[in-house]
Amino acid sequence: MRHLMNPLDFSVEELDRLLDLANDIEANPAKYAHACAGKKLATLFYEPSTRTRLSFEAAMLNLGGSVLGFSSADSSSAAKGESVSDTIRVISGYADICAMRHPKEGAPLVASLKSSIPVINAGDGGHQHPTQTLTDLLTIRSEKGRLHDFTIGLCGDLKFGRTVHSLIQALIRYPNIRFVLISPEELRLPDNIRDDVLVKNNQQFQEMVRLEDALPELDLLYMTRVQKERFFNEEDYIRMKDFYILDKEKMKLAGPNMLILHPLPRVNEISVEIDDDPRAVYFKQAQYGVYVRMALILTLLEVEVC
Length: 306
Known about the structure:
The protein is of the alpha/beta class. The protein has eleven helices and nine strands. The chain is globular.
């Protein structure tokens, strides 16, 4: 039995097979329509989510399985003080696989140690978001045709952005990736990612404050929102939330083939006027998330479809 806590839990070869499976699911949905008939997915979401929770549910339903779970801690026994360990022990008797989102870093890992079913980390605090990373990798590979030899700009909340942390850790395993880290001083990439991941692995990276300076050299731009829920006081959030706004004027500085990704939800860091730009792939990215989660469920449940 395997769990997914971190994108590095899969080797590059295993990731390639997973992404190949996701592409086959996209091309041949009917082939997989009953692959998980009789199987149940438990979605244990201790904090709000739209895309991640619903894409997990859509993934399992598309595979012919069923779903149970809760969408907030208030609607679970956590409100009564039940521990994650006790919850997963109970859920293990109800479902075949579990996706857990929790505001505390490491909570899904704790659950995996007590679980008798596969546990997927669907986001833990500002730590990791591995299934978003799988979605990002599938999007990049499907739209760019490769996972190597490009320059990617990561813009916005690099301090608390778990999607950014996970994506960096995944991409450094591929050759000739150059990172441009675009953020205000207050939201810079944490030292443990900058020093222990980028510097330690001799990775090419550059830190910038102005988005306009970075745009001309990028093959990919990964925008993130400033996350209100990660701030300790509202004044700091209000001061930082509009630091970057990608609009048509700024897009004139970007190359004709630069792709814009965003893990969503957005607030106002990408103007809606960009949505019809062919370089904007963030809504397509959300759809790729369903395919990759379908592939992940099949992989962890060891279901093979001929």
